[in-house]
Design brief:
The chain has 9 helices and 12 strands. It has 279 residues and is an alpha/beta fold. The longest helix is centred in the C-terminal third of the chain and has 21 residues, at 257-277.
């Protein structure tokens, strides 16, 4: 099935985290949108949905998942997808994303974002499953690039070629995490600009930004620091060619909502600078 989706740039958002609920309710900040972790709200009722409905009264919400495990060698979980679609109806999310990863085996769910082998066989497998997911949800579906720390001996192409072929063959979109590109480039020794210059930026529906922990010999995607200058530089390169919705993730060692929002707003400064440089 071919879809013609109308995709809007929502502006700058941050990940909605329970630690910030009270500040959000009291401050009523002029924030463009929030991103939620879908699985946190795929419940029948209770406090999570009460908070979600309160946020939805004032702000657009976009769903981002962590448990689809689309590359796993198991059938698609239709119970999970039906519950996901019910949440889509509730939030009116304009698109939905998850990760280009696996995490399930028959009888086991590892609850982790595990990298896939970069082979044509895996491309064909994941692309078809992604197409099915998008058709079922009836909204744009995007896959996010991982931060990775290991590689497979069976890899037959670089990550950017694998990622590009999955989204193009599946007719889906990219949820491009710029921090993950940087983290993986350090861990695997490639040029992050080669990655950016080699992917179809027209398929990028949303950008993720986050902080990481630099241990010298390796880098961890920890989401518990401000965004590093090297990542902001890559963001400028991407956004100059793909001016799409931008999201700041902060998931540990939390700071106040106001400090988190101030970090996200740095993206507006980079966007303004890019706009003025083209006048």
């Amino acid at each position: 099935m071919t879809h013609a989706f109308d995709i809007t740039n929502l502006g700058i958002g941050i990940g909605l985290r329970p630690v910030h609920y009270d500040e959000i309710y009291s401050l009523e900040p002029d924030i463009d949108w929030f991103e939620i972790i879908s699985e946190n709200y795929m419940v029948e009722g209770g406090k999570p949905l009460e908070h979600l409905d309160k946020i939805l009264e004032r702000y657009p919400v976009v769903q981002h998942g962590v448990n689809l495990a689309i590359g796993s060698p198991t059938p698609l979980d239709w119970d999970y997808l039906r519950r996901l679609k019910r949440l889509v109806a509730r939030t009116k999310t304009p698109w939905l994303s998850d990760h280009l990863s696996w995490g399930r085996l028959p009888g086991a769910h590892f609850h982790d974002l595990l990298p896939l082998p970069y082979t044509q066989e895996v491309i064909d497998y994941v692309a078809e499953r992604a197409r099915i997911v998008q058709d079922f949800l009836e909204i744009p579906f995007a896959l996010e690039n991982l931060s990775s720390y290991v590689a497979y001996t069976d890899d037959s192409m670089p990550e950017w070629e694998f990622y590009s072929q999955v989204v193009e063959k599946g007719g889906i979109f990219m949820m491009l995490d710029v921090n993950n590109i940087y983290v993986s480039s350090r861990n695997h020794g490639f040029d992050p600009m080669t990655y950016i210059n080699s992917i179809p930026l027209s398929r990028v529906i949303q950008i993720h930004l986050a902080g990481h922990s630099d241990h010298g010999d390796y880098v961890l995607d920890t989401h518990d620091h401000p965004v590093r200058d090297e990542v902001w530089a890559l963001y400028s390169e991407v956004w100059s060619r793909a001016p799409v919705s931008t999201l700041l993730e902060w998931d540990d060692n939390f700071v106040s909502f106001e400090e988190t929002w101030a970090e996200a707003l740095r993206a507006k400064a980079f966007q303004k600078e890019l706009h003025e440089s083209t006048l």
